[in-house]
């Protein structure tokens, strides 16, 4: 029996299938459930949106796989929180870098545009009264 640790209150069956790499994409869940027998706590289940909680058991008879959904320990919760904090920190850095790059790109475009406009100006000869 394989254990899957759940960090939120629940996880949907479709999301669990994807996170455990039974399917590749979330869209494949419907097709998978139509073609495979899945038992949720001993009862047949084919709804990809079925909410699964800690203590539930999934059995995939065609795959010979059994998954026990477990609650995390205090150490696992702390480690998971550290990972989420680090992910948020990196996302903030990338967002700032993208904003800075966009500002630089806009400045370069503006400078190039100004230079082009300068050289595109037509110089005309001065006109004197009475000349054609």
UniProtKB/TrEMBL annotation:
Biased composition (Basic and acidic residues): 97-108
PROSITE patterns: S4
Pfam family membership, one: S4_2
UniProt keyword annotation of RNA-binding present: yes
Keyword line: RNA-binding
Region feature Disordered, mapped onto this chain: 96-132
Residues of the signal peptide: none
Entry GO MF terms: RNA binding
Annotated TM spans: none
InterPro entries recorded: RNA-bd_S4-rel_YaaA, S4_RNA-bd_sf
Protein name according to UniProt: Uncharacterized protein
Gene: yufA
């Amino acid at each position: 029996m394989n254990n899957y640790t759940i960090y939120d209150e629940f996880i949907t069956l479709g999301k669990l299938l994807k996170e455990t790499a039974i399917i590749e994409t979330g869209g494949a869940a419907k097709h998978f459930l139509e073609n495979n027998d899945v038992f949720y706590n001993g009862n047949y289940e084919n709804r990809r949106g079925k909410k699964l909680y800690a203590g539930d058991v999934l059995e995939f008879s065609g795959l010979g796989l059994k998954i026990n959904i477990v609650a995390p320990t205090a150490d696992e919760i702390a480690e998971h929180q550290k990972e989420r904090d680090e992910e948020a920190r990196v996302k903030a850095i990338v967002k700032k870098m993208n904003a800075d790059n966009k500002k630089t790109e806009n400045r370069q475009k503006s400078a190039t545009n100004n230079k082009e406009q300068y050289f595109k100006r037509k110089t005309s000869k001065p006109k004197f009264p009475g000349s054609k």
